[in-house]
Amino acid sequence: SSGINAEYGGHSIIVMDVFALPVEGTETRVNANLAAYEYMVNFQNNAKAVGREENVVGWYHSHPGYGCWLSGIDVTTQMNNQQYQDPFIAIVVDPIRTLSSGKVDLGAFRTYPETFNKISEGGPSRYQSIPLHKIEDFGVHCKQYYSLDVSYFRSSYDDKLLNSLWKQYRINALSSSVDSSNQNYISNQVKDLSCKLSKVQQIPTSREDCAKIATDGTKTAIEALSGVMTSMLKKKVFKCDQ
Q: What global pTM score does this model have?
């Protein structure tokens, strides 16, 4: 879990930097404590002292392999943050799906105020492919927050840094096997689809739920095919047998 430094631009929050927080976390859970919030305050004070005028306006963490959304703990953390410091955003990134799809899988969220009259029917506006063991946590809390539109930009310093990294690592990046690094993720996705299909056979399921499983299957197939095609192309270009 990390803090976010940002500027304001009209109705937008422009994220400029991030910094690590001293929090306890596991692969599936992050708990921010008092020490983390104290660290955040001290970090911003020290940044102001050296001329960094951005404000701390959020936090981010990862959901490796199970999508960008807020869990029950995330919702509670975000609600507390918005209550005492607003505007404040929560960003979630999935590094595994990013590697699999070849594009950044990232979401930005805010929670509704407790007094807000949430819509009783429906869920998130954008369908999410959620692993079976995470569906319950997602479904219970998905109406307590909303997603924000996200766009990306690169500063001149970003260009210099990325160009430097590209010059140093371009051969490794181009010749590495996406198929082998992606194998565990695809295998887990297929296993999850199998569990969902087994559940459908055991419990009466609506046509909408069946359509969601079909969507998940299509997404997994496309990601697997993309990885195979990329691997085959690299073998042709570099004439290797990775």
A: 0.68
